[in-house]
Amino acid sequence: MSLKSDAFPSSSAFDAINSSLQSDDAERKDAVKKGNAVFAFTLKNKGGATESWHIDLKQKGEVCKGEPEKADVTLSLSDDDFGRLASGKIQAQRLFMSGKLKIKGDIMKATKMEPVLKRAQTKAKL
């Protein structure tokens, strides 16, 4: 099942992240061990619509569409900025400092998301 939404072009990155997690059981277990959190993403497209996805690195090691029951950290940003973040063209800290990335919850957990994005970049060549 694809996680991509046509209204959110960068959402294809969630498929890449999920396939990266599902492709290697040892890597998935390592990501869960290091992440130990549920990361929610709320993206806003150019039309003003919002949609959510979440990455469960607390138990299952998978990506799902929609909001989780309970997120440890929620990242809100534009679809364009998420595309740049997922492809490695910009760092999360820069987006956060410029006010383009809003974080709710445990901000320190948000820093644990970067290795997962980097692994997906190398596997999928985003």
From TrEMBL:
Residues in SCP2 domain copies: 20-118
Domain of life: Eukaryota
The protein's name in its UniProt record: SCP2 domain-containing protein
